[in-house]
Specification:
heterodimer; A: 265 residues; alpha/beta; Rossmann fold; 6-stranded mixed beta sheet; 3-stranded antiparallel beta sheet; 9 strands; 23% strand; B: 249 residues; mainly alpha; 11 helices; globular
Chain lengths: 265, 249
């Protein structure tokens, strides 16, 4: 099958430091691709470049045949994304957040109502749909965020650590739904996670990134064979080492702290 | 595209209507100015032969309420960046122009609503509108002022990453725009240097047009007022949408 995502020699530098350094990979249409790596390896930066939020320093990207730098609108039509950190409007209700998303993605009215009901049931928030997001717990926000990312059925869905902070039940539901979307509608799935058993079970193709470069690619079995290990987790640790990584606080993190001190509005 | 403009507009309006503390809070400052300055400086103004000071500053205070609210609404972009919602709109398959435009007119609607509230309070405080037929055109002027500064707010917010520059914006943008606009003193009798500065402040023309419709006096011609408001709004909208469209997260 053809490749729906093509990345060639992609590099992103912040003040001369390459956060993503000359990476190349491709994802075939209808595939499930896991992008793994320790904290600060460059996963989120890569996803931001793929989803038009950041401009690459060099290299080329093709998303569903479109270059996100040259033709961002066409590229945006092709994907949906669940971000790693929150992106809901706290001052709107759960239902309003979903409706706003539906309007931005031009989901037809009747389909929208049906999907909202279906997805709210999936993430078990149907009875809280008229509550404001600011009253939601972290886990509830996460679940709603996932429901929203799946609301329009895009050609590609990016899931940046979607299961972070979810209980096993919800994780299970979520992956079943994602697999169903993949099987029934042929939606290509691109996800990152720190749960290796998840990646091993769900992804058909895995790439491991560390310090901005891709250090291994293949199926879970390939990676285990290559490293002579018995599980993906062991293979991952062997490839990336045992040292714990630190992420430097971004200006956003600093602002969050600032904002908390300052009070909102 | 139209749908995106509408939902972004609706979001701003909903947030405003739901936030009672914001509505009340934003009225505190204009009321203080009206009462303290209007009543406090009134007798002095009268003795100087300039007439009723409350009548004179009421349009200026309306302008003040609008410019504060409009610029802050624009700067809401920074909060959205902080709380993550900005990303959701930035990856949506609608042009960023539509998102920016929806936010601008949403912010402008809210700011003009506050202007109307201040007008209402001013009337309660003793402000007499010259002619009731002037109200509707005055509201349209309020919308124009609000549109202009809403676009300016978004432009500034698009260039800032966080709230660090907030004091800078407050002290070197909003305050000068307000104080130098002739909102509080008559431009006719101002020293020529001050008048020259005021001529470069778009709020001067907004307040002047409000005075034209609400109390029947003005410094500049109405055509000039409306022309400047329209022209500068168009400029800020164009610049604002450019800077908004190149935001990186």
């Amino acid at each position: 099958m053809a490749n729906i995502i093509e990345v060639r020699n992609l590099t992103k530098k912040f003040d001369d430091t390459a956060v993503v350094n000359d990476i190349s990979f491709s994802v075939e249409e209808g595939g499930i691709f896991a992008f793994l790596g320790p904290n600060g390896a460059g996963k989120s930066t890569t996803i931001k470049m793929l989803t038009t939020l950041l401009r690459p320093t060099s290299g080329t990207i093709s998303i569903n045949g479109f270059n996100p730098v040259v033709d961002p609108d066409a590229a945006r039509h092709s994907f949906g994304i669940v971000f790693q950190d929150p992106s809901l409007d706290e001052d709107l209700t759960a239902l309003e957040n979903l409706q706003l998303h539906g309007a931005l993605y031009s989901v037809p009215k009747n389909t929208l109502a049906k999907r909202i009901a279906e997805l709210l049931a999936l993430v078990e928030l149907a009875d809280r749909k008229n509550d404001f997001i600011r009253d939601f717990s972290g886990g509830m926000k996460r679940r709603l965020e996932i429901a929203r990312g799946l609301l329009h059925h895009p050609k590609i869905i990016f899931l940046d650590e979607p299961t972070l902070g979810l209980d096993p039940q919800t994780r299970n539901h979520l992956w079943n739904y994602v697999r169903k979307l993949n099987a029934d509608e042929g939606i290509t799935v691109f996800f990152t996670t720190h749960y290796m058993e998840e990646a091993s079970q769900i992804a058909r193709h895995i790439a491991i990134i560390d310090n901005g470069t891709i250090i291994a690619q293949g199926t879970s079995a390939d990676l285990q064979k290559e490293t002579g290990t018995a599980s993906l987790e062991e293979a991952f640790l062997k490839l990336t080492g045992n040292v714990i990584r630190d992420e430097s606080g971004s200006s956003l993190d600093r602002m969050r702290t600032h904002g908390r001190r300052w009070g909102r509005r | 595209m139209n749908n995106a403009i509408y939902v972004m507009w609706l979001r701003e309006v909903k947030r405003f209507i739901r936030s009672k503390s914001r509505i009340v809070g934003s009225l505190g400052q204009p009321i203080l100015f009206l009462v303290a300055l209007g009543y406090g400086l009134g007798p002095v103004f009268q003795k100087a032969g300039q007439g009723n000071y409350l009548e004179f500053i009421a349009p200026g205070i309306i302008g003040m309420a609008i410019i504060f609210s409009a610029i802050f609404n624009g700067m809401q972009v920074i909060w959205d960046r902080q709380f993550g919602f900005l990303k959701e709109t930035m990856v949506a398959p609608v042009s960023r122009l539509a998102i920016m435009f929806g936010r601008t007119i949403g912010g402008a609607t809210v700011a003009s609503a506050q202007g109307v509230l201040v007008l209402f309070i001013a009337v309660l405080a003793g402000f007499r509108v010259a002619s009731w037929t002037g109200i509707l055109p005055a509201v349209i002027i309020m919308l124009l002022i609000a549109l202009l500064f809403s676009a300016l707010g978004i432009m500034v917010a698009s260039l800032l990453k966080d709230m660090q520059g907030f004091q800078l914006i407050m002290n070197f943008l909003i305050m000068p725009l307000f104080f130098l606009s002739g909102a509080l003193f008559p431009l006719n009798s101002a020293p020529s240097a001050l008048l020259l500065v005021a001529r470069f402040d778009p709020l001067s023309y907004g307040v002047d047009a409000l005075r034209y419709f609400l109390i029947g006096t003005s410094t500049f011609s109405l055509t000039l007022d409306v022309g400047v408001l329209l022209g500068v709004s168009a400029l800020f909208l164009a610049l604002g949408s450019y800077f908004f469209s190149i935001i990186e997260i």
